[in-house]
Amino acid sequence: MQPVVLVTGGAGYIGSHTCKALHGAGYAPVSYDDLERGHVSAVQWGPLQVGSLQDQATLRRAFETYRPIAVLHFAALAYVGESMQEPGRYYTNNVGGTLALLEAMRDHGVDQFVFSSTCATFGVPAAGRIGDDDDQHPINPYGSSKLMVERILRDYETVHGLRSVVLRYFNAAGADPDVDIGERHEPETHLLPLVLAAAAGHLEHVEVFGDDYPTPDGTCVRDYVHVSDLADAHVRALEHLRAGGASLACNLGTGVGASVLEVIDQVERTTGRSVARCVRARREGDPPELVAAVERARRDLGWNPSRSDLATIVEDAWRWYRSG
Ligand code: UDP
Fold first, then answer.
1. Tens of pLDDT along 166-175?
2. DSSP codes, 53-93
3. Which helix (H) or strand (E) holds 10?
4. Which of 90, 146, 190 most suits a substitution to test ligand 1, by most atoms within 8 Å of the C-beta?
5. Which end of the chain has fewer CB atoms at under 10 Å, N or C?
6. pLDDT band at 126 (very low <50, low <70, confident <90, very high)
7. Domain region containing 79
8. Which of 27, 91, 142, 213 is catalytic?
9. Is residue 96 pLDDT above 80, yes or no?
10. Is the whole model's pTM more than 0.90, yes or no?
11. Domain assignment present for 153
12. Does residue 178 sit within a domain?
């Protein structure tokens, strides 16, 4: 029998790509999702249990019905801007929801956990690439909520023996190369899908949030990493835990940054269409530059992203965009 893995947020962007990767690696993913932001159509590689993390009865029923060996926890609110407006909602959902999940795991004897964290836990880093062990001083409630869970996990390990792999994503982008699934947020706030919408003529222009940052072209620099490479890192994290590996926290990026204008230029090259842009004020909560120094994921998980160059990311995302 295939080992069952509970995937919270399995109907979401990174969760659904990970379900596909898990299925390909011989696991049986069970998605647990409240469908507030996820899509039923993204759940293609195993059953879906609809429920929220705060709904104890449904959550516990999922553990009893499916008897997972591990939990991969994606379910969370994940918009920096929104978190600045509604911090309480972010802490309730991201911290409170995770605590409910960890308690349900304890009650059912599940002690292997892979957690979706974020580069937003680092805040405004000192110059240069962000190392796995760099100081974390988040500047928005989204990043704070994820860092709180990182700390909670350390205590759960000390006291309850729960082992975890914390994966701090930099900027997830792109889509499944087979075009089975892709990025679909409502409302869409992420840069690449918005630039593609402008290239397709569905948006008049792209808003560039600030061009006076201390970066080479004045726009924010981010480390874009292909969602399928992120999915692969989750399978590796799970296998690391199953093999008895120690808990670890690592950055998932490429080490190469791209500015907002470079992303727009790449979209113009890939699509052969021009994209109008309008410079706007800086978006609150945005650090100028977030680029990973990727060491631990390579060394301890053997992770080596294969589709994360910007051209491939944009190509895959564009193919998905046009299929919709
Ligand atoms: N961004 C932008 N215009 C947009 C959306 C995003 O200039 O319409 C910028 C944003 O300020 C950030 C980068 O693009 O510097 C990536 O933002 P996104 O929301 O995609 O991801 P985040 O970095 O918030 O996870």
1. 999 999 999 9
2. TT-HHHHHHHHHHH--SEEEE--S---HHHHHH-HHHHIII
3. none
4. 190
5. N
6. confident
7. 4-172+223-253
8. 142
9. yes
10. yes
11. yes
12. no
